[in-house]
Structures
1.
Amino acid sequence: MEVCVLGSAGSEAPGFNPPAFLIDDFLLLDAGTVSLTLDRVAQCRITHIFLTHAHLDHIKGIPFLVDNLVSMHRTCHIRILSGKEVISDLKTHVFNNRIWPDFTVLPEKENPVMTYEVITTRRPYSIGGYHIHATKVNHAVPAYAYLVEDPSKGALVYTGDTGPTSAIWKKMRGHDVKALIVEVSFPNELIDLANVSGHLTPSLLEGEIRKLARVPEEIYISHLKPQYRLQIESQLARIPGAHLQVLEEGACFRVT
Ligand SMILES: [Zn+2]
Ligand SMILES: [Zn+2]
């Protein structure tokens, strides 16, 4: 699987865009940044968007994406997948014909540009040869991590936003996880803010890595608040025993 980083920051600033990870051109994990980095042909190749949660920095690319594609709905169609709370929040608070049109009935009810699908943590969702497992994590709102598995080549885990958690680390034990994308939002000095908002600091990440039965070959760090990036990077460099890399926007990597 090839993973391209459309955005990876925990906020927005020049050169820093919110999280979105594109797998093999068609599968998107979170949608904080889409049409700012992909042209319309690449936007149309996306068929499925798995959302970790409904916070604005993870969904804000969707309204403009579907707006761009609505006239091409016969060839471009976007399915939005997540847990029931996340889909409910999108319907109620975003695509509610007030903040933005309800694109699940546009341009025509029978053939809309966008559809929703509620997924469960009880069984994986299969698409394009991948099995995608959702697992609840510990954030300020209902939130899910995703384990994306190619049965012959191994898996990628993306935590989305989370504070200290456990279920996803247990889930990893039954799978050959080659790469992990995990969030670190704040430096160690802001641990109280991290705890109250459901995020990690480098020292909290160190505790999470200790929970892993097996440390993946690659651990990629995302969701750094841009103003603390240098501070967080120097604190991450002091964590022993794991190969940590801060994700660069525009970069692609392979999970094999
Ligand atoms: Zn969040
Ligand atoms: Zn976030």
2.
Amino acid sequence: MAKLKTKFVCQKCGYSTARWIGKCPECESWNSFVEEIQDTSVSKKSKSIERKADSANILMLSGITETKEMRFSTGIDELDRVLGGGVVNGSIVLIGGDPGIGKSTLMLQISSKLHGKKFLYVSGEESAVQIKMRAERLGNIPENFYVLSETNLELIEAVIIQKEPDFIIVDSIQTVYRPELESAPGTVSQLRESTSKLINIGKTLNIPIFLVGHITKDGTIAGPKIIEHMVDVVLQFEGERTHLYRILRGIKNRFGSTNEIGIFEMTEKGLKEVPNPSEVFLSQRNYGASGCVISSSIEGTRPILIEIQALVSPTSYGFPQRTSMGFDLKRLNIIIAVLEKKLGIFLNKYDVFINVAGGVKVDEPAVDLAVAMSIYSSYKDVPVDSETIVLGEVGLAGEIRTISNIERRINESAKLGFKRILLPKNNLKYIDLKKYKIEITGVENIKEAQGKLI
Ligand SMILES: Nc1ncnc2c1ncn2[C@@H]1O[C@H](COP(=O)(O)OP(=O)(O)OP(=O)(O)O)[C@@H](O)[C@H]1O
Ligand SMILES: [Mg+2]
């Protein structure tokens, strides 16, 4: 096979040269040249291209029958949900996350659930022995599982064609390289060309490929961001390493919604699915403690009950601190201002700390009222009834504004045995109160909410 020619292209203006230069003569930008493959096959071999075009699989859109079999389940419900209902054949999924979060573990666990499928695990980071050790720890040595410790994409392609796997995992995309390019693995050009080659392989052979990617903060080595637009699905594995819980979030999905999340717990036996997150997040709840309020947040299509904790204590410095874990700091400042204006408490001599228990992050306004009430409760040192769920967005005038997905939140609260739910009065119009076994109270403003709770 003839060696592919490469050229260096300025990423700002598109000027190309045969060798790398530091400054673009066209647009005068520095360090903007990236190596790219120069494809000359079209002009040189036009006859063979024609022959190829004849044999290519060109179809009329109206003639394609979409079949259900295109998708298959990974056997891990939390992952299936984030993928939009399973893996699509021929799709390319990029899964990114911090070091040690559990990317390789999750990839290995898929293989144990999918019996009868042939796996190819391309590992550029770990030796075959390490992978075997991990599989042993997870308690499962899958059959039909090939391990390939190789980073040269030409050889990887050859193995794929020879072994014809049903599922390919590349761990990680930063380590594989195309020998035609001079640049080192992990650089922008290698990442882009390697990914496009793998996409090509996956789409042609109709094999799903999972690419593991590292998040790098270093400017010189490109993170997976650069290839996000090329792949079909981008998943992000999140979580504090010190917490047990890991959240798998869809960032981009050509086959489904990106609102879904999957929740896992990291154990010695690998990642365990958490089918009922509310129970887990509330399992270490404080009963009767001041500053603790339960609220509900919608993650994807699922309502999750969470505990908002506030600590208000006299400041020891001249300037009061506002610290928030899992809740937006700007919103916290707004809520504090509303509390001061409408409830007449003055927090300028107090530090305010907010924590969403369990390491969860919430970014929807429906928990505003719970945050406000937890601050008030901590300030007054009077507990809020632990059987009550508090919901509502707080407006600047102290009004409690309508929130979305109210029925799902009520159902989840009732399911977990809560007695009472406080929600925006305007939401009551759309609720059939008799349908629920939980006491529902509507409130119009923050003053009224405080009167009903504390
Ligand atoms: N014996 C063990 N018991 C419990 N948890 C373990 C054990 N061994 C490893 N782990 C967990 O597995 C994690 C490593 O998982 P994994 O190697 O899948 O991460 P990764 O995202 O692939 O990391 P990298 O970026 O280094 O490839 C560790 O951070 C730890 O939480
Ligand atoms: Mg790994």
